[in-house]
Design goal:
Length: 210
């Protein structure tokens, strides 16, 4: 698969890069992608939910009424779950939702996500972006030139570019990631994935032999 390299002004530079079939041309493994996304979302959960059970709520333990002869059910404590202010039965407790996946499976999931986006023509290639200062206005103009300003966009760079990251961090529909830190969730969550030229080289070094 070949992609034309676009300039930051949105014009065709005349250069083309052939994408590796080992990265952008495999048969997507939907179950691997599902597991990787599931793990990502599970790891975001704090798991700090908690409600008080009957041994934790404040209240008297005095017997409310005599055992028999009232015509109602037995009642021994205000902490009972049947009363307002009583403890909850089997309420939520703090827990860890995270789980582990094999590195090879996660790699297959990322490659499947990249191949799926390439198959749907949702990827684009842009020349390396050099910004002398962190300016959101300049970054928005680049996105407008590339006609992705209104789309949920993932920009992939070869190395950490602090000016690009700072320029994009206030844009709710844009996320910047380096090639070595790509996640399946971020790829699939984007409408368009913008790769810089150097990011393609980084991806080939990371995944060509896997």
């Amino acid at each position: 698969m070949e992609l034309s390299v676009l300039s930051i002004k949105g014009q065709d530079t005349g250069r083309k890069i052939t994408l590796s079939d080992a990265i952008f041309g495999i048969e997507p493994n939907e179950h691997a992608m599902y597991l990787d996304v599931k793990q990502y979302l599970a790891n975001q959960r704090q798991g700090t939910h908690k409600s008080k059970e009957r041994n934790e709520v404040a209240g008297t333990t005095k017997k409310l009424k005599k055992q028999k002869g009232t015509g109602g059910a037995r009642a021994g404590s205000m902490k009972s779950p049947v009363f307002i202010g009583g403890g909850r039965v089997f309420g939520p407790r703090p827990r860890n939702y995270s789980f582990k996946l094999n590195k090879k499976l996660k790699a297959v999931a990322r490659l499947s996500a990249l191949s799926s986006m390439a198959k749907d023509n949702k990827i684009a290639l842009v020349e390396n972006i050099e910004m002398s200062a962190a300016k959101t206005k300049d970054f928005v103009s680049i996105l407008s030139n590339l006609k992705v300003a209104e789309k949920k966009t993932l920009m992939v760079t070869g190395a950490i570019n602090s000016n690009v990251v700072l320029s994009a961090r206030n844009l709710p529909k844009v996320k910047v990631s380096v090639a070595s830190s790509l996640s399946t969730y971020d790829i699939l969550n984007a409408e368009t994935v913008l790769f810089t030229e150097e990011s393609i080289n980084s991806l080939e070094q990371l995944y060509s032999n896997k």
